[in-house]
Design goal:
The chain has 531 residues and is α+β, with helices and mostly antiparallel strands. The protein folds into 4 domains: 60 residues, no CATH class; 91 residues, Pdz3 Domain, CATH 2.30.42.10; 219 residues, Alpha-Beta Complex (2-enoyl-CoA Hydratase, Chain A, domain 1); 106 residues, no CATH class.
Length: 531
Amino acid sequence: MKPKYNTMFNKKIYNLFYFILIFLTGILLGQALMKNTKSTTNNHKINNVLQYIADDYVDSVAIYQIEETAVEDILSKLDPHSVYISEEEFHAANDPLLGKFDGIGIQFRMVKDSVVVILPLENGPSQKAGILAGDRIVIANNDTLVGKKFSSFDIQKRLKGKKGSQINLLVKRNGVDELLKFSLKRAAIPTYSIDANFMLDDTIGYIKLSRFSASTIKEFGESMENLIDAGMKKLILDLRGNSGGYLGASIYIADQFLEKGRLIVYTEGRNRPKQSFKASRGASFSKGDLIILMDQNSASASEIVAGAIQDNDRGIIVGRRSFGKGLVQEQMNYTDGSAVRLTVARYYTPSGRSIQRPYENGNEEYFNDYYKRIHKESLIAPDSLSIPDSLKYKTLEGRTVYGGGGIWPDHFMSTDTSINFSFYNRLLNQSIIYQFAFDYVDQNRKKLASLKSVNEFISDFKEDETLYKLLINSQEVKKLKPSKKELQDSKLYILNLLKAEIARNLYFDGFYQVFLQNDKFIEEALKLWKN
């Protein structure tokens, strides 16, 4: 099974539409001053107001848009994670969790004003038709895709479609003068929740899990089986940046490490009685050592797994305090293709800790607090914070763990304050390293084709120092005007990411095997085992 790399996941932007309330209130007050007012009961006020507007408002209005705005505003007053999903947003919100989508089977990226194929997915329509990495898709079904500022979402809408439907492409390939014609039939394309799984050495396995989707149970089971067959005695499960997903998938993964009958998580809500979920299969990896990596972007299902492992004293959590998303949503779908996700309960770890961060001061303060907390907690460990006794809990063996939202790691990874990362971060924010790596691969595909595997690339690719000098002397970098100290501080990080990005453009499983060679979290995990 070849893992598919995914770019940064998209966050839901929470907008507060106060104008709709003012608009509706103005109408109601105006009508109240009239002698011949229409009367109704207090039940179903929203429906009545919308109908009143549709029947009697002075101008024609788009009732559907007003209705959507009102629903969004109502949900925003409840909690940060009860949301309305429009028809346009529905597939983007749900497809990543389904384990598949209907499309042409490529990883792509907008490079300048072109849709560039990063990798055609194995056995997908594009690979079977002969589309290659580096190809530019110029036209899709008579729709020109170059010379315009399209978002990735815009491109996906044009390339995705019903399974079996036809799409005609015109493609520009380096070294070929004329445009190449391809006629493809869209197919079901698997999306993978495991980005990487391989052995770090003879006994230590590594799994990078990006989400908890419908395919996670199958993927994780196969990955564990392959690593155990390869001699794995210890496992690093990387949940950094994992924003969550299906509860069932998180319970399955925790079940692989816990003895039968151990509590994994429980949920409880005003209209949802307490429901406990326990390990039921018996651990398939009960004896091996386990370390889980987390950061401030690990959320929801990630926190369920980490909390279960921590509270049952089964493994070590290394990293930073997780996001703190412990609200259970149920989804109600509408016939027009939209949906509402409503919070119905809360998640609690085996020791009784609520995973959810407080949100009493409103959604805006909730997300602002997240960024403030990252800055504050990235520099200090929990033992140096003043935490009230009410937020201290005990694990199965009596260790102290901390509540208040999110999962505190057992071994905290603080930020290296001796290094100024501002220049490195600017390179990342402007995608300069990624673009440089892509251009290099695009211009040297024939030469790089001699490196048949990631292992060959790691051992035989020796041009990273030369490329580093070309990168820092490029016009894009010179515009940033880095100081000598900034270049010195960030050199190792730039070299590591540059080589990993080149590997990403060459191999399905390339990025992490290269990038993790200089990963501080991995280094710390290995030190803990060594000591």
